[in-house]
Amino acid sequence: MFKKVLIANRGEIALRVMRACKELGVRTVAVHSEPDVDSLHVRFADEDVCIGPGAATDSYLSIPNIISAAQITGADAIHPGYGFLAENAHFAEVCEECKIRFIGPSPDAIRKMGDKALAKSIAKKAGLNTIPGTDGAVDDEKAAREAKRMGFPVIIKASAGGGGKGMRVVTNPDELKSALQIARLEAEKAFKNSDIYMEKYIENPRHVEIQLLADNSGKTVHLNERDCSIQRRHQKLIEESPSPAVDEKLRAKMGWSAKKLAREVGYTNAGTVEFLIDQNGNYFFMEMNTRVQVEHPVTEMCVGLDIVKEQIRIASGEPIPFSERDIRILGHAIECRINAEDPENDFSAFPGKITGVNIPGGPGIRVDTHIYTEYEIPSYYDSLIAKLIAFGRDRREAIARMSRALEEFVIEGVPTTISFHQMIMRDEDFIEGRTSTKFLEEKMNAFKNGRT
Amino acid sequence: MISNERIFERVDKILSILDGTDVSEIEVENNFEKVKIVMTPSAMEAGDDTEYAEPMPPVNGEGQVEVFSSIYVKSPFVGVFHRTGNDGKPLVNVGDVIDKGALIGYVSTMNIRNNVVSEVKGKVVSILVEDNHGVEYGQPILTVEP
């Protein structure tokens, strides 16, 4: 086991990783930017190092500063969390060269799965169903030709992307050219790579992903699925496990496909294979995330495992101590992402000072957060301020617990998405499990139309 | 780095804030500078509104307000601080007068030696980091009195 782990992240995930380290008896090093000096991850770490000013490019994305911080503190491993450098193959490589263990898959696996077009071709080779689309990046001319072949609607995506940036759905040929232009600009800005590709757009699909763990001996297990269909502009807002749309048979098939892909790239550590399920129950490979996901607690609650601890154990060379047959679905878990965003105002982000907090509790409730009273939300980073997870013996109980926990959750000083989640928990279609990635858009439209 | 003119501007501002209070000593610090103002009894007695509104006279004059100002030279890198040059001797010592842009040491980051230079001209008052010790971003290395 490692002696000291540096956590190359901030916010709730830095705290989450720190908790796992502490429970494993591993010392922790927090890194932080100047505006994050009063953060809880700094406060609770054994050691902390300031790695730069507020802008992430000069701090949380600065490979030399983070590696140096590990070197001056004598950390023997780095956990990257999610976002920032978590899926940066070069960073994983530099760690390796500096004899610091990167808690994640190999640089080669990150690189292969990080290039979305390459990932798709590898998935295809491994026998997974993929969504019809262009093989690799396209120029305007090829895009027009391919769109005609596939038929509209099509979706444009950034080759290096994720998280909805650089994505555009195009419903008719007239919109194609300008959509390509905007997508390229967004991709360039977000990923410093303007390459884009195009796919057939599947209408009203569900977003269902399989959580994997793989150790260095090649043992690969799946921990069931998460349904992340409730999204706004491709950003997940509510996740749950198990999916109301997945039965035992489909779960086994999807798990098998996900593991097949992982083996194809020699995958180790935790990873997630994302699929779209169409209305007929066909599932298509979308992409693989080579890191711990924001929504990992949903799986943890549902199967009773600690994914972050498993990540650390696997990276230190330990085998996975259980087999897939041991995995039981203990109940139902739902996560609501609480963002400092104003749902009344197009979800615009809202940095500012939190003047009062009440964290909910009681049976089946878990809150992963880094906020406290008087905490100042910096404007440099994303707006996620808390993850509220409710667990129940079935979906109905999980929803009931989520509803009452949302009521108990008080955050004063900044607008949050709490009220929005309360609305969803009361929605009849959500309660009945009738969701798709279009769910929110349709609800918001209905809400707007109903109001005017 | 700050000019004398700007120091006085700020001192003036601080004094106007203190005006009417019975504060006798104040220290103000930001990333680059540290200013300490001590009101001598005569200044406090003689002080009235009009006097404080005027720009303050230079230090050491007949003035009734003493201004001590020192500036930190901070590490712009994360890494290991090295105080010595190629000849094995420290690049700066306490008491040295250094120019703006003077090399005061190195911070090695992933085997790359980065120069740390002073952003101000002045006298080295103290050296805050030991040779071969780790420094974080923004950590004060020297205090300099301009």
Give an account of the 3D structure:
- The complex is a heterodimer of chains A (452) and B (146).
- Chain A is an alpha+beta fold and 452 residues long.
- Helices cover 35% and strands 26% of the residues of chain A.
- The termini of chain A are far apart.
- Chain B contains 3 helices and 10 strands, in the order αββααββββββββ.
- In chain B, strands 1-2-3-10-8-5 form a 6-stranded antiparallel beta sheet. In chain B, strands 7-6-4-9 form a 4-stranded antiparallel beta sheet, with no helix packed on it.
- Chain B is elongated, with a radius of gyration of 18 Å.
- The longest helix of chain B has 15 residues, at 4-18.
- The N and C termini of chain B lie close together (10 Å).
- Chain B is of the alpha+beta class.
- The chains are: A alpha+beta (452), B alpha+beta (146).
Give a quick set of tags describing it.
heterodimer, A: 452 residues, alpha+beta, 8-stranded antiparallel sheet, 5-stranded parallel sheet, 15 helices, 26% strand, globular, B: 146 residues, 6-stranded antiparallel sheet, 4-stranded antiparallel sheet, elongated
Task: Give the topology.
The complex is a heterodimer of chains A (about 450) and B (about 150).
Chain A: E1 4-7, H1 11-23, E2 27-33, H2 40-44, E3 47-52, H3 63-73, E4 77-79, H4 89-97, E5 101-102, H5 107-114, H6 116-125, H7 140-150, E6 154-158, E7 168-170, H8 173-191, E8 196-200, E9 206-214, E10 220-232, E11 235-241, H9 248-264, E12 269-277, E13 283-289, H10 296-303, H11 307-315, E14 332-339, E15 341-342, E16 348-349, E17 352-353, E18 356-358, E19 365-369, E20 376-377, E21 384-392, H12 395-408, E22 410-412, H13 418-426, H14 428-431, H15 439-451
Parallel strand pairs in A: 1-2, 1-4, 2-3, 4-5
Antiparallel strand pairs in A: 6-7, 6-8, 9-10, 9-12, 10-11, 11-14, 12-13, 14-21, 15-16, 17-20, 18-22, 19-21
Helix pairs in contact in A: 4-5, 7-8, 12-13
Chain B: H1 4-18, E1 25-29, E2 34-39, H2 41-46, H3 49-53, E3 65-74, E4 79-82, E5 97-98, E6 103-109, E7 112-117, E8 122-127, E9 133-135, E10 140-145
Antiparallel strand pairs in B: 1-2, 2-3, 3-10, 4-6, 4-9, 5-8, 6-7, 8-10
